[in-house]
Specification:
This protein is α/β, with parallel strands linked by helices. Helices cover 45% and strands 16% of the residues. The chain has one domain: Rossmann fold, CATH 3.40.50. The chain has a seven-stranded parallel beta sheet with strand order 4-3-2-1-5-6-7, sandwiched between helices. The structure holds adenosine monophosphate. The site of adenosine monophosphate has 13 residues, from helix 5.
Length: 193
């Protein structure tokens, strides 16, 4: 894997475990020679993961909407910063650059971003692994909700299982390494939307 996209909170959350996990993930990405793609801001866990990768000599590519850069949210020390016009362009470019997607703990933005990546995998618009780093059980209730979605017939079991839920950074990388994309043809094929 050349580049990994990390989605995470623009806040730190209220447990030191979240910051520690963001730091560990950033360091692990750099240590593996993988480039980090992320939202380009210096705030919250976003800043922590970027700083950690940079401190380990890693390459960090930020993708930030111009209106956020205008509010001085841009990280000043990135290897590369792409300024785009809209949030949609941001996610599109992040998806084009990356070969895998991980969500650390975060809020609406993080959840929306990782579910979009999962949805695009379901539609075979990409074949890269998508995972959530379940730090301190932060995503337990979300995973439980997805089980309800399977039970109620809105999410197929195989697609649920294709979302990697890992409780440590090492487990995340191990499972990314053996990931095989779901080949079902139920959904629209690549390039059709
Ligand atoms: P969230 O998980 O809601 O904290 O949001 C994470 C995503 O939303 C990231 O892509 C952020 O760039 C963006 N975002 C939302 N609110 C802010 C904010 N106040 N400052 C910086 N980025 C934000």
């Amino acid at each position: 894997m050349k580049r990994l996209c990390v989605f995470c909170g623009s806040s730190h959350g209220n447990s030191p475990a979240f910051t520690a996990a963001a730091r560990e993930l950033g360091e692990a990405i750099a240590a593996r020679g993988i480039e980090l793609v992320y939202g380009g801001s210096h705030v919250g866990l976003m800043g922590v993961v970027a700083d950690a990768a940079l401190a380990r000599g890693g390459k960090v590519i930020g993708v930030l909407p111009r209106f956020m850069a205008d509010k001085e949210l841009a990280h000043p020390k990135l290897t590369q910063l792409h300024l785009v016009e809209t949030m949609h362009e941001r996610k599109q470019l992040m998806a084009e650059l990356a070969e895998g997607f991980v969500a650390l703990p975060g809020g609406f933005g993080t959840i929306e971003e990782i579910f979009e990546a999962v949805t695009w995998a379901q539609l075979h618009l990409h074949e890269f692994p998508c995972g959530v780093l379940n730090v301190d059980g932060y995503y337990d209730s979300l995973v439980e909700f997805l089980r309800v979605s399977v039970a109620k017939g809105f999410v197929r079991q195989k697609q649920f299982e294709s979302v990697i839920v890992a409780s440590s950074v090492d487990e995340m990388f191990r499972r990314f390494a053996t990931f095989k994309p779901e080949k079902s043809e139920k959904w629209i094929l690549k390039g059709k939307i």
